[in-house]
Amino acid sequence: MTVQKDWLEKDFYKILGVSENASSKEITKTYRKLARKLHPDANPDDQEAERKFKEISAAYDVIGDEKKRSEYDEFRRLGPVGGGFNSDFGGFSSGGMPFDISDVFGNFFGNQPNMGRQRGLDLEATLSLSFMDAINGVTTTLTLGNSQGKASTSVKVKIPSGVENGQRVRVKGKGQQGPSGPGDLFVVVQVEPHELFGRDGNNLTLKTPVTFPQLALGSEIKVSTLDGNKVKLRIPAGTPNGRTFRVKGRGVSTSKNVGDLLVTVEVQIPTEMSEKEISLVQELDDSMSNKLPKD
Fold first, then answer.
1. How many domains does the chain have?
2. How confident is the model over 67-71, as a mean pLDDT?
């Protein structure tokens, strides 16, 4: 079992604010909520928010993955986080460097750790994507700088379709070189907003303007979809303002499923009206005022 050094010190469940018995769905939902709140785009020049964003991303990378979560839980049961032994391991410090668990127990029992089996450090980089590239997936080239004065390197990164804002994409073997091979590169995706559509998981969201008569009397409207086409949406009579309708299969398509389009109708108040329109609205107001309950 290969683990990360920060597994010795960090409680990833506590970082995300979920219980150890939380389902994968609950963990993903909590992470997405925190990622939206702490994302650098929503908190420009806020170093504390950026630090927390990286921290929850690192936590989700472990407990958001079934295999890693299983290994992490087993390590917690045996290791310092789980209370199995003291956390002072000869001056080990966190920092993302992976090592074999046999090194930990070797050090604990006074044996020399097998330092030659260490991989290189994992790296992290940020990649900005357009809304459509995040939906459809894209292969792009990422340029990585080098703090040691060496030439920068270019890495080809394949972003799968349906990635979300704040999601981390792993590129194996593209981290720093180590005695036993390189670490990995983790690419944090930052998705640019769309002028019309929002996103909730694999569902797309859309707000569309309607008139009061359309909600009161019922109507059929056409709404835009992400592919540029329009679909018909029937609004029943007596629909309240702000109601959300679901258009099946018009959301984000991934290898696992296809989301829906969630359309919220919002009454648009005209800023300019003709004298006839004003008169009709006044007449309607007089008529409806008599139907309201009186104090």
1. 3
2. 84
- Residue 223 CA, distance from chain mean position: 26
For residues 15 and 101, state if they share a domain.
yes
Terminal Cα distance for the chain, rounded: 72
User: Which helix (H) or strand (E) is 208 found in, with range?
Assistant: strand 203-210
Mean pLDDT of 73-78: 72
CA distance 265 to 22: 35
Q: Which of 189, 1, 183 is nearest to 95 (CA)?
A: 183
Question: Among residues 69, 98, 116, which one ends one of the domains?
Answer: 116
DSSP 88: -
* CATH number of the domain encompassing residue 182: 2.60.260.20
Furthest C-alpha separation in the chain: 92
Residue range(s) defining the domain that contains residue 65: 1-116
Question: Looking at the domain assignment, is residue 164 inside a domain?
Answer: yes
- Beta bridge partners of residue 246, listed in sequence order: 262
pTM of the model: 0.55
Q: Residue 16's domain is classified under what CATH number?
A: 1.10.287.110
**3-state secondary structure at position 250:** coil
Residue of 258, 40, 44, 4 lying closest to 166 (CA atoms): 40
Amino acid at residue number 293: P
Integer-rounded Cα Rg, in Å, for the chain is 27
244-247 and 261-267: which strand pairing?
antiparallel
Give the alpha-carbon dihedral of 271, 272, 273, 278, to 10 degrees: 50
Does residue 248 share a domain with residue 148?
no
pLDDT of residue 249: 92
pLDDT score for 245: 96
pLDDT at 41: 75
Q: Work out the percent of the chain whose per-residue pLDDT is above 70.
A: 79
